[in-house]
From TrEMBL:
SUPFAM superfamilies: L domain-like, Outer arm dynein light chain 1
Name of the featured protein: Internalin-A
Keywords: Leucine-rich repeat, Repeat
Stored PROSITE patterns: LRR (PS51450)
This protein's record includes keyword Glycoprotein: no
C-alpha cells in the first residue's frame, strides 16, 4: 500500500537492510539521514532520503540508491561515477548533479527521464553527444561549465530554462537560447562577440558575460528587464546605455572603453569602469538613483563632469587617475560618504574645489601632492583618512573625530638654503605633539623658539632626515616621512 504526503511516497513493507558496494556512498547516506555509524540503511529508513549531496567523496558505485524511492535531488560533484542505472526508475528524481565525473558517459545521463535540473560541469563530451541533451525540453536549470562546449544549438527547444551556466567554454554565440523564463545566464570565459541575435530574453534579470569578445552593448535594449550586467574584460570601445528602465548594476572593467554615454537610467545604482581608457566621464544625464561610481586606473581620464548627473552619489572611486585636474564636479553630490582619490596627485587647491561635504566619512588621498590637512574643516563627519605618500609634516588638525588614519611615507622637499641658514618647519603629530623619533641621515638639528621649529644642517650638499610618530591609540606607526633639502656653501 502506498500513500502520498506532500509529494513524498511512503511504502509500508517488510524492512530489510540494504547492502552497498560503495561504502563511501553508504557513509554519505547515513550522514544525510543522521544515522549512527553502527546503524544500517534499510529499505524503510532510506525512504526518508529526499536530498543527497556528496561532494568529493570518492564514490564510484551508486548501487543501493534504487531503494530511495523518494529521492528528489542528488549532487555527486567530484566523484568517479560511471553508471546511473540505480537512478533510472526513481520517478521523483528531478535534480541531478554529476559535475567533474570524467568517466560518466552521456548514455548514462540519458537513462534519466524526469529531470528538470542538470549539472554536468567539467565533463567533456563530443558535440554529437551534447546534442542528445535536446530531449530534456523541460529543463529549468542547466549547468555546463568547463565542458569544452562549441555550440548550444541543442538548447533551442529548452524554452523553460530559468538558470543557465555555460562558463569556461569555446562558445562564439548563444543565439540558440529561446526561453523568456531565463532570469540568470553565466557565460563568462568564452569567445562571444555579440548577443544581438539572441531572441526572447525579455525575462532576463542577471547576466555574467565577463571575459568574452563583445564589441558593443547594443543588445541591452532587447533585455528590457535585466538589472545586473557583468561584462568586464571585453572589447567594448564605445559603451552607450540609454533609456533602460531596470538596470541596477553595470560592471564594465578592463574592456578597452574609450567613450561612455549614460543617459536616462532611472534605476542605475552602481557602475564600475575600472582599468579602461576613458578620457572623459562627461556624457551622463538623468541618473537619479546612481550611488556608486568606480573609475580606478583610467589613466587618461581628465573630465569628470558627469558626476554632477548623480545627485545621490555616496561612493566615488577615482584612484589612479592622475590626469584629473578639476575636482569641482565632486562638489555636486551632497550625499557623498566615501571618496577615493589615491594616486591622483591631488593638490591643496584641488581638494578645496571639492567643497563642503557634511556626510563624508571616508577620504583616501594617498599618493597626492598635499602639503597640509587644512581641508579637514570641509569634512566635519570624517572618520577614516588615508594620507600616505604626500608632502605633509603637520597632522595636528586631525582632532578627535577621526578613528582610523594613516599618514606614513611623507616626502617633504624644502627650498634650497645656504650653509648655516635655518628653515622654519612644522613637524607635529596629532594634538600638536612633537615628533621625537628622528633619524638623521646627514648631520643636523631642530631647534625651537616658542611654538616655532627650525631645521639647520651641519654640512652643504643634499641632506635628509627620516621621522616617525605613533599615535597613542595605535600599535603601528601612524605618521612618518622624509625631509630633504639641498644646502649650498
Amino acid at each position: 500500500m502506498s500513500v502520498h504526503t506532500k509529494g513524498v511516497l511512503h511504502t509500508f513493507a517488510a524492512e530489510s537492510m540494504i547492502y552497498f558496494e560503495d561504502k563511501n556512498l553508504e557513509s554519505a547516506i547515513k550522514t544525510t539521514l543522521n544515522l549512527a555509524e553502527s546503524e544500517g540503511v534499510s529499505t524503510l529508513n532510506i525512504l526518508n532520503l529526499t536530498h543527497l549531496r556528496a561532494l568529493d567523496k570518492d564514490i564510484s558505485d551508486l548501487s543501493g540508491l534504487e531503494y530511495a524511492e523518494n529521492l528528489q535531488l542528488v549532487t555527486f560533484t567530484g566523484n568517479d561515477i560511471t553508471s546511473l542505472e540505480p537512478l533510472k526508475n526513481l520517478n521523483h528524481l528531478y535534480s541531478v548533479g554529476f559535475a567533474y565525473n570524467s568517466n560518466l558517459k552521456m548514455e548514462e545521463i540519458l537513462k534519466l527521464e524526469h529531470i528538470t535540473e542538470l549539472d554536468l560541469s567539467g565533463n567533456e563530451y563530443s558535440d554529437e553527444e551534447f546534442d542528445q541533451l535536446e530531449k530534456y525540453s523541460e529543463l529549468t536549470v542547466l549547468w555546463l561549465n568547463s565542458c569544452q562546449l562549441n555550440s548550444i544549438s541543442f538548447m533551442s527547444g529548452m524554452n523553460k530554462l530559468v538558470q543557465l551556466q555555460i562558463q569556461n567554454n569555446n562558445l562564439t554565440n548563444i543565439d540558440a537560447l529561446n526561453s523568456s523564463r531565463l532570469i540568470g545566464i553565466w557565460a563568462t570565459n568564452n569567445r562571444i562577440v555579440s548577443l544581438k541575435n539572441v531572441a526572447n530574453l525579455s525575462g532576463l534579470k542577471r547576466l555574467w558575460i565577463d571575459n568574452n569578445q563583445l564589441i558593443s552593448l547594443d543588445w541591452l535594449d532587447k533585455m528590457e528587464n535585466v538589472s545586473h550586467v557583468y561584462a568586464s574584460n571585453n572589447k567594448i570601445e564605445k559603451a552607450v546605455i540609454s533609456g533602460h528602465q531596470y538596470i541596477y548594476l553595470l560592471q564594465l572593467d578592463e574592456s578597452n572603453i574609450t567613450e561612455i554615454e549614460l543617459t536616462n537610467l532611472p534605476s542605475l545604482m552602481q557602475i564600475s569602469l575600472n582599468y579602461n581608457r576613458l578620457a572623459s566621464f562627461s556624457q551622463a544625464a538623468n541618473l537619479p538613483a546612481l550611488q556608486s561610481v568606480s573609475l580606478i586606473e583610467n589613466t587618461e581620464l581628465t573630465n569628470i563632469e558627469g558626476i554632477s548627473a548623480a545627485p545621490k552619489l555616496v561612493r566615488l572611486v577615482l584612484q589612479g587617475c592622475p590626469g584629473i585636474t578639476d575636482f569641482s564636479p565632486v562638489s555636486s553630490p551632497e550625499q557623498l560618504v566615501q571618496l577615493f582619490c589615491n594616486n591622483t596627485g591631488i593638490t591643496d587647491e584641488q581638494i578645496r574645489d571639492i567643497g563642503f561635504k557634511s556626510k563624508l566619512i571616508l577620504l583616501a588621498v594617498a599618493g597626492g601632492k598635499l602639503s597640509n590637512i587644512d581641508f579637514i574643516s570641509q569634512f566635519p563627519a570624517i572618520k577614516q583618512l588615508a594620507l600616505m605618500d604626500n608632502r605633509i609634516s603637520d597632522i595636528s588638525q586631525l582632532g578627535d573625530n577621526i578613528s582610523r588614519y594613516s599618514a606614513t611615507d611623507q616626502k617633504i622637499t624644502l627650498d634650497d638654503v645656504a650653509i648655516g641658514e635655518k628653515t622654519e618647519i612644522s613637524l607635529k603629530g596629532r594634538y600638536s605633539q612633537r615628533v621625537e623619533n628622528i633619524e638623521w641621515l646627514t648631520e643636523g638639528s631642530i631647534s625651537t623658539d616658542g611654538d616655532k621649529q627650525f631645521l639647520t644642517w651641519a654640512e652643504s650638499g643634499d641632506n635628509k632626515l627620516n621621522f616617525s610618530w605613533q599615535d597613542n591609540n595605535s600599535t603601528e606607526i601612524s605618521f612618518s616621512g622624509t625631509f630633504s633639502q639641498t644646502v649650498h656653501k
